[in-house]
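Standup notes
- DV: blocked on the single-chain target, sequence here:
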Amino acid sequence: MAYPHEPHPAGPEPQDTQAPTFDELDAAGQSLTNALRVSFTILKVIMVLLIVLFAVSGVFRVQPDEEALVLQFGRFRGEGEHRILRPGLKFAFPEPISEVIRIPVQRVQTLDVDSFWYFETEQERLGRTPPRMVTGPLNPLRDGYCLTRNDQQTGLAGTDYNIVHSRWTITYRIRSPIDFFESIYIRPRNPGEDLLDAAAETVEPLLNSLASNAIVTTMVKYSIDDAVRSRSDIAVDVQNTLQRKLDEIGSGIEIDAVRADRIVWPRQVDAAFQESNRARQESEQARIDAASYKERLLTDVGGPQAEELLEQLRNGDLTGEEQMELVSHLAGQVQTVISEARAYRMRVVEEAKANAEYLTALLPEYRKRPELVLQQIYQDAIQQVLSDADEKIVIQPSQGGQSREIRVLINRDPQIRRQQPDQQGGQSR
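- DV (later): unblocked, structure below
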């Protein structure tokens, strides 16, 4: 049986496969080689750029108020003072190889110490209400206080005249970054957090404790009167004590200043202290007034140099001439008195000379007729005495020893009183 011829299915006709030639393989390999060469070149450039960027990222600037330390694999880079980087451009390998620690050494930090202040409500702290008058005792669990030297005071019973409340402000800065970083614990910082903000959690409790110890140690050296009146002196002593304690532990912290904002006695005894202060102020004012009066009086009496000259005159080693020389430099009322004394001395000397000459002249006559001379001297004396009397009454001796009655008028004779002004006016004319 014959089968009809069946056509082949439609589709591409099979082609004969032919192996690539050597030239074709060589061109492909060359293209691959060029591509790899370009890729490696680009990779090298990228690596170089990455290395440059890595190196450049290690350049940093230390600001004028900062000093920096570099930790390299956890250890300080450099030796001695070379470990501290001063302001300017610096280089350090980036993390994780190195870590740059910036410390603002010029930034002043402030710490308030209120542990010795009495309890205040929130409204009192904000100044919205006046301080309360407290009459009860102190509550040690709530009220802070400090003890001063316990001096017994006259008129005050008991031995508790030494309690004060105080508030303090301390300003400090970092003096030695190395000592600070080695001695003070600093917790790991959060991203972008300042070093001092992280360190404050350790530094402030430390300073508060040491400052409280320094305040207690210092205040017991002063009486309560000294504490209230001499706050600046006490603050200096507290600062020196606190700085010594910080240096002993090698903290690297320097205290700029300690200020005693307030030192007051307890509110429970405010009235008694106010009265004591008023008495003290009055006493001080009296002393000032007395010193002023003394100075004014010395100036009026002896001139502006009176006090200095008086101190020299009190020196017992001065001779009479030296004392007179100092006295001659005095002015004021003393100079007037000295001038009057000198005039009086000259007048007395002259009168004595005149009397001596008078008696010398009478001596020859006295030797011849002494009774007559004495009578003449007596009459001259009587005449001199009576010349100053307003009214003269002469009584003749009685004859035969008979007594006389003398009547004395208490009131002056008005006729004589009228004549005296006329006589004085005529003499003046």
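- Follow-up: Residues 1-11 have pLDDT under 50 and may be disordered.
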